[in-house]
Structure formats: structure tokens, C-alpha cells
Amino acid sequence: MDTSPLGLLRVFAPKVPFILKTALWHWLWLSPTSSKWDLRTEITVRIIRSLLDNPIPTPLAKQQRWSLRDPGIKGKMWISKITLPRPDEEDIRDVLVEAIASQDEGEGIYTVPPIMPVEAEWTGYRANVGHDRQRLDLSEAQHYEKLMAEVTNPVTILYFHGGAHFMMDPASHRIPVSRLAHLTNGRCLSVRYRLAPQNSFPCALLDAFQAYLSLLLPPPGSFHDAVPAKHIVFAGDSAGGNITLALLQLILQINRSSSRTVLNFHGRCIDLPLPVPAGIAGNSAWADITRCMPSITSNAQWDYLPPPMTNEKISTFPHDQTWPTDPPRGDVYCDLTTLCHPLVSPLAAKDWTGSCPMWFCYGEEMLADEGKSVASLAAQQGVTVVWEQFEAMPHCFSMIFDQLAAGRRCFKDWADFCARVANDTDEEEEVKLETKGTWFAAKTCKETDVDVRSLAVCSQEEVAERMRARTLARMQGREGEGKIMPKL
Fold first, then answer.
1. What is the C-alpha separation between 140 and 122, in angstroms, rounded?
2. Is a pLDDT exceeding 60 seen at residue 427?
3. Better-scored residue on pLDDT, 22 or 243
4. Element at 148 (helix H, strand E)
5. How far is Cα 67 from Cα 267, in angstroms, rounded to an integer?
6. b (16+ CB within 10 A) / e for 248-284
7. DSSP string, 219-232
8. What is the CA radius of gyration of the chain?
9. How far apart are CA 96 and CA 100, in angstroms?
10. DSSP H helical segments within 150-237, as ranges?
């Protein structure tokens, strides 16, 4: 997608009649969503939907390049760009491979990735400046010092951006991440993990794991001091929420199954079992890469994500330098044989015992049912779970509609959870956080309590069968490559 003024004109000028028709139907209450959405929401969702569900997909490489354009750094944010060096030891990759094998119930195929340096951005809130204030001409170390001078809460949010695993990066998410830093009075480390399709599973997960260990045990030359796990919160949106859940599940699985007593990391040792973070917080987390749950179709009217393809509308991506891959695989993120692996689709995870507190927020969106299943199972297994769902809101609504009451409430509760679970309490004092579910009514945000343990719409056995059936359909070519990805 061309984001130049002329390019945007080419995209939106033909949609003027569509926009006028949408407005007319909304004003006349002829739209099925008129009672739940205001006009701005209606037009925005329908425009995004029309862009994402393009019948002629744009090549993946072009989509990726467009999403990686750096908007620059200005206004109310401190950004310090860093690179976390790769350790000389191979322990983190070896223990990841062991964890994958210990949960693999089939013949999952994947390529063992190399350990690479991981780029990231320390992000904080910059007070007392205008939105157009330019970034100061300082070294990255000096930017970090400026950032830390405004931090008053010990929370460190390890953030993973969304983008369907193949788009976007920390630069695209600077505004929402700096907002989290502002609302928590803390800091965020936003990770530039390796993107698909060039880097398939488990590359992104390995980068995320390396970033977490680098907080616990800073590599030589790091700006930051060691961060205790009790002050770290994993957070992410959409595909970043997938990585957040997968990283937590990886840590839990290592602690359950590994015979190791230490991990060697930059010449030092990290004792096992690994510490779990203070909490995880997922905003519209993508927990099921197979997209098998009922809400994928039943909630489509409230969402802008592309619906699953029918047998009559099989979609494939145009060939370019990134697709198809070599060797070829049927999914942008992973081989089809690993779709049901818990570290690919956390919906498949059977055990969340020992987890830190978990926060989930969804709209009435296509991914809601997979989140319900994960939250419900975790709560049944004794994990503290906070569940929030907003009526008639689409995927990642708080990042699009921050002017709505629902968007403001989502961000407030997201930040409140992060700050609360990472609060610097005495060792004898536990954070008083209880499992709680809330449904927020459209427009008014009127609250209704829901039972988190009873959220799931399918039993675990039904979920497993649905995932297997959807994977088989992909393998047999009855569903296309493009059905799970935006097609800009």
C-alpha cells in the first residue's frame, strides 16, 4: 500500500461513494451495527475491512515493506534503540528445541534457528513537551538516561508488537507502547523479533526468550541493570499476544520437563526452574493459528479481520522473493505440521499450572473464543485471570478507537494490571488480585460480571478436534494460504 499523498488518494477516492452509502445506512438505522457503533466506528471498520479483504492480494514482501516504514520519533516519548547481543553459548536454543519436542504429539517439522542479536527499543513517556517536539540529538545511552529519569514505577513491560507475524515492528507501535509507559509510570522494552515468512517458527519465540533472559541477566554493555522477574510483565497485541502466551508456556514447559539445573548465558548461569514474570497482558491475543473456533464466523460482523475462505474462494499469495518459501510450507508463520503445537497455537496448551496472573482483553471479535478457552482453562487450573470483553468492538479496538470510552477503558485497565502485578511489595505481602471477568456494554461500558472459569464455548476435547480438522483442511488444500492473513 502506497502511503504517499497521491497513493492514499488513489486508495480512498474510489471509496467515497462507499463511505457516503455507509453513512446514509447508519443514519437511517438500516445497518445491522447502527445500534452498537457510532458513525466514525462504522466507517472506520468498514474501510479497514475493505482494505484487508482485497480479492487480489498484494505480495507479502510489499506488505511487509509498507508496514516497516519508520514514522520517526517525536512528541511525548523517549526511545533508546539497543541491540541485545547473542550469547556465545547455545543453551537457550537447545532448551527451546527440547521444550518443543516434549510437547510435540506428532511429526512437527521446523528448522532449528540460529541465535541472533535482537534489536529492541526502550520506550518511556516524555513529559512536558508538545506532540511535535523533535527527538533530541543525543546518544542512545543518553536517551536511556533521560527515559529513566522519568520512570517512577519498577514495572518493566516486555512488549511484542502485532502484525500477523510478518508485518510491523517496534517503530509502528511506539505510540501505544509509550502510552503504556505513561499510564504505568514505568518503562517498556519493545522487541524487534524476526518476522515471517523469511524467519519461521520458532525464530520469533527464540528472540523473545533471549530478550527476557537479557532483562534478568543483562549482557555486557547493557544500559539496564538486572530486572527481577517480579517486576517484568509480558505484553502484546494480536500476533504479539501470541508470542506473549507462547513465551510463558515455553517457560512453564522448561520448568516442567527439563533435566537441566542451569542455563549458560553470556558467561554466567541462570538457575532452573526459570522465574516466571509478574504477569502477562494480552490485547486481542491471537492464540489459534488454525482459526478454528466458532467466533471466527459468528463475530465477523463486528470485526475487520478477513473471514475464512470458503471452498469457492481459495486464496494464495502472489509469488515474490519471500513466498513461497524454500522449502515450501503452507503457512506464513510455520509448517502446517506444527499448527497445533502449544508454542505455535497456545490454544492447544493443556497446562497453565504455575503461571503468573494473566490479563486478557478482547472485543466481540473473531478471535474471542480462542481467548475464552485459554482464560477459562488457566482459571480452572488455579491461575489468577482477569478477563475483559467489550461488546461490538473489533480486533485491537483500543489501538484504533482510543477516543471511545471502550478504548480508553481498555488502555487504563491494561496499564493498571501491569503496574499492579509488578508493584514492589514486601516479600511477605502478595498482590491482592483475584480472578474476575467483566463484559462491557457497547457505548456505555456498563459492566456485567462473568464467570471466567465457564467462559469456554467448547470443551478441550472439542477444541483439539476442531484444530486437527482445520489443519487437515489446510493440508488437503481445501483452505488457502491467504485465509489467515490480511491481503493489503
1. 10
2. no
3. 243
4. helix 140-149
5. 37
6. bbbbbbbeeebebeebbbbeeebeeebbbbbbbbbbb
7. PTT-SSPP--GGGE
8. 22
9. 6
10. 174-184, 203-216
Per DSSP, the three-state class of 315 is: coil
Beta carbons within 10 angstroms of residue 142's beta carbon: 12
All 3 cell numbers of residue 93? 536454543
Cell of 274: 526459570
Q: Which set of grid coordinates corresponds to residue 268?
A: 554466567
Lowest mean pLDDT among 85-89, 309-313, 361-365, 440-444: 309-313
Let me know: does 226 contact 217? Beta carbons within 8 Å. yes
Provide the 8-state DSSP code for 130.
-
Distance CA 159, CA 204 (A): 13
pLDDT, tens digit, for every residue of 302-324? 999 877 654 445 567 889 999 99
- HSE-up of 218 (CA within 13 Å, CB side)? 10
Q: What is the DSSP string of 365-391?
A: STTHHHHHHHHHHHHHTT--EEEEEET
Judged against a pLDDT cut of 60, whether residue 142 lies above it is answered with: yes
Query: Which grid coordinates belong to 348?
Result: 492447544
Cell of 476: 488437503
Contacts of residue 190, defined as CB under 8 A and 6 or more positions apart, other chains included, come to 120, 121, 122, 123, 159, 160, 161, 170, 173, 174, 177
Cα atoms in the Cβ-side hemisphere of radius 13 Å centred on 119: 9
